[in-house]
Amino acid sequence: MPSPRPPARPRWFVPLLLRLHTLAGIVVGPFLIMVALSGALYALSTPLERAVYAHELTAPSARAPLPLADQVAAATAYAGESDVVAVRPAPSPGDTTRVMLAGDGLGESESRGIFVDPGSGEIRGDLTVYGTSGALPLRTWTDQLHRNLHLGEAGRLYSEFAASWLGVVAVAGIGLWIARARRPATRAAVTRPRLRAPGRRRTLSWHAPAGVVLALGMLFLSATGITWSAHAGANVTALRGALDWTAPAVDTALDGTGSGSGAGEHAAHEGHAGHGAGMGDMDMSSMGMGDMAGMDRGEDSPATYDRVLAAARQAGIGSTQVEIRPSETPGTAWVVQEIHRSYPTQVDAVAIDPATLEVVDRADFADYPLMAKLARWGVDLHMGTLFGLVNQLVVAAVALGIAGVVVTGYVMWWQRGRGSRPGRIPARGALRAAPWWSVLAVAAVAVAIGLFLPMIGLGLLAFLVVDQVAARLPRGAR
């Protein structure tokens, strides 16, 4: 007599994934569509910026560039009494020099940018500049739309919520795809589009393969987007600091106390928006305008920009795209930092004593910890600057694909229903079939995630509690 077949193991994980994927998709879907469309717009804003602000960014003069002293003096004469925050010399012939000034009415990380023709000293434009990437108003507007819907700090919760749950939806979707692709009966439905399939099956045949193709991009955008978030971003920053994964910053103190401000790590995330700077070595005998006595004392005279840039060039700052920042307070060094974030990345920085022109500190990208380099590349890839136009087009395509996958998800939900009513949510109570240790493991993961990524963890815990309570209610009360 044949031995009885062992009882089948209860299936709970796939139904749990299905319910999580469906509920999360329905609730988070509008946020994902908004963050995807605004992200696609932001990715394309860099080439649009070059077209919209062509007058400000291009210099018609074909003459040899004037000393930076003359260019800075022209900008400050035009703008009136304003402190110079930074100068980005023209990176190549035909580009303007950008002199960034402090001013009233500017927001956080904003400066007033005066665009100067380096050959003639003509003022080509006067625009607000945002962040270390030097975003102009169009790109700044799309950046703020993507980050916070123009609602300030409160609006950042929307993007954190979307970025956090994008990864959850993607992981659950991958799990469902693997489960169905392993079964011969459902493999064809999730591995290729089926144009002749009826209704929901046809939509699923597009939704599932597209989601899997886009999954890596979803996870990447989710992980890198979280670094800018309000709550999870602070945890990521603390973790990187604890593990020494941060980029080194140059120390601008000149008295040996190490109390000066630095430049380096903050540039990785300030502004969600790279236009660059840099001219060749300067002839230090042609300083143009400037008080030579004041220059020798290291005061903030226009001629000091030429001297400091020349010293930085001799110290190995070779990128054509650089930013020169004068001393923030008396007794501190000037900083010259490369801002070329395309690959190969050039973001070396040196701190220079303006009186002696000695390099007092430096931070080279080659010396960054590996994780700091990966963070730099990840941020630039997310923003579309690492590989230029190709990078921007790919990010825009992935973002639009994410929006399309969300829309097909809603279509499938509607197709499960009848008439004008959407379909039912997958059945509750999947965890009732799970062994107790699995329930504890899932809850423990949710708690651990919740401590680090609050928007994910709190939602997961709420999902588990509601699912367990609802599963124990009488059927008619569910």
TrEMBL record:
Keywords per UniProt: Membrane, Transmembrane, Transmembrane helix
Disordered: region residues: 256-283
TM annotation in the entry: 20-44, 161-179, 204-230, 393-413, 434-466
InterPro entries: PepSY-ass_TM (IPR005625)
Keyword Cell membrane part of the UniProt annotation: no
Pfam families, per the entry: PepSY_TM
Name of protein: PepSY-associated TM helix domain-containing protein
